């Protein structure tokens, strides 16, 4: 059985006072448990705050994006070594908002995943189809194309990644994939990862996961946890999801 992991993706939300309260509630509400892990991926300016608050707690932290280059003339960008300076464990790469709004390609995302692995960070590689792609019957080919681009680049180091399946039509829409729909895709991803020697990594589900649907999703065989957007901004809801 893979490690169980629930990750909060705060996206471009939060503020010093709001975060302080949220992190404090998470620390007080989360009981350490070797079989499952909790993490939050926060906006860059709050990494120092997350590090200060969460050091010594069982909750991990990380970022939502990174640049693949090590340093240099990339105005506005952040390098892996900078994330390591704040003791990040995780970096979300290839979130559909990055793919769609910022036009990141499969190759960009593969390069970011590789940069994370080179630096000792765990990339959470996101894959997922749009509604049009699902309706055209191409869900499987889309998510495997996205995953294969990363596998081709990182090789056997895929065993040190996390993968998140996030159907784009389920993100922030209140529409969740039915557990068996999600499981079908997770099983395909697992099979491909197994061929790459990474069959036991965590495969998270994301897209409108809430306290009231987490347990049924997480009970599917190949769903090892969740990548949680809006519900991760409410401590009680996020903790309830993590406990599911
Ligand atoms: P959501 O976002 O939980 O708000 O749907 C999930 C995500 O985009 O990671």
Quick structural overview:
With 244 residues, this protein is an alpha/beta fold. It has 10 helices and 8 strands.
Beta-strand content estimate: 15-25%
SS field, number of helical segments = 10
Nearest-angstrom radius of gyration? 17 Å
Q: Under CATH, the topology is which?
A: TIM Barrel
Terminal CA distance: 16 Å
Mean pLDDT: 96
Structural class per helix/strand content? Answer: alpha/beta
The string of secondary-structure elements, in order, is EHEHEHEHHEHHEHEHEH
Number of strands: 8
Strand adjacency order, main sheet: 1-2-3-4-5-6-7-8
CATH-assigned homologous superfamily = Aldolase class I
**How many domains?**
1
Shape: globular
- Bound molecule types: 2-phosphoglycolic acid
Question: In CATH, what is the class?
Answer: Alpha Beta
Note the main sheet: 8 strands, parallel, barrel
Low-confidence stretches: none
């Amino acid at each position: 059985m893979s490690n169980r992991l629930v990750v909060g993706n705060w996206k471009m939300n939060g503020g010093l006072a709001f975060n302080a309260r949220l992190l404090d509630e998470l620390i007080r509400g989360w009981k350490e448990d070797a079989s499952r892990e909790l993490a939050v991926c926060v906006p860059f300016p709050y990494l120092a705050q997350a590090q200060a608050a969460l050091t010594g707690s069982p909750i991990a932290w990380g970022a939502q994006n990174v640049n693949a280059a090590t340093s240099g003339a990339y105005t506005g960008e952040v390098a892996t070594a900078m994330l390591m300076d704040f003791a990040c464990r995780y970096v979300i790469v290839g979130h559909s908002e990055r793919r769609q709004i910022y036009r990141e390609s499969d190759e960009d995302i593969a390069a970011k995943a590789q940069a994370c692995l080179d630096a000792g960070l765990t990339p959470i590689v996101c894959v997922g189809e749009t509604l049009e792609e699902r309706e055209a019957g191409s869900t499987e080919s889309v998510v495997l194309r996205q995953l294969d681009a990363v596998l081709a680049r990182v090789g056997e180091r895929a065993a040190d990644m996390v993968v998140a399946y996030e159907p784009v039509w389920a993100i922030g829409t209140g529409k969740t994939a039915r557990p068996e729909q999600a499981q079908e895709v997770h099983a395909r991803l697992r099979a491909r990862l197994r061929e790459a020697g990474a069959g036991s990594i965590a495969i998270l589900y994301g897209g409108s996961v809430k306290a009231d649907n987490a347990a049924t999703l997480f009970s599917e065989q190949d769903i090892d946890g969740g990548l949680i957007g809006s519900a991760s901004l409410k401590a009680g809801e996020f903790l309830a999801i993590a406990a599911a």
